[in-house]
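Fig. S4 source data, part A: sequence.
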Amino acid sequence: MARRSTDWFAAPLSLVYIAGTSREAEAAEQALTAEGVDYALSLEEYRNESMLGAIFGSVYKGLFFYVPRVYHRPVCEILEAAGLNDTVALREEERN
């Protein structure tokens, strides 16, 4: 199990992690691959929602990690156990 294209998945995907650096991306890929998790990647822009980000309007590129929605919580736990604590929570509309 490993990195897949988004088209490979039949189930709806949810965002679990945004890697802002190559080091974070490598750590996330290693953790997910070691646990046998299928995931999709997408290079996307995101805005820093911190106080400085709000003032300066910084936009960054990051590697977005997606997994089937039903595996969202277990995958967050895998990433957090690997020291990647800034996982993305499910949005309200995704929880049903």
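Fig. S4 source data, part B ends here. The longest strand covers residues 59-68.
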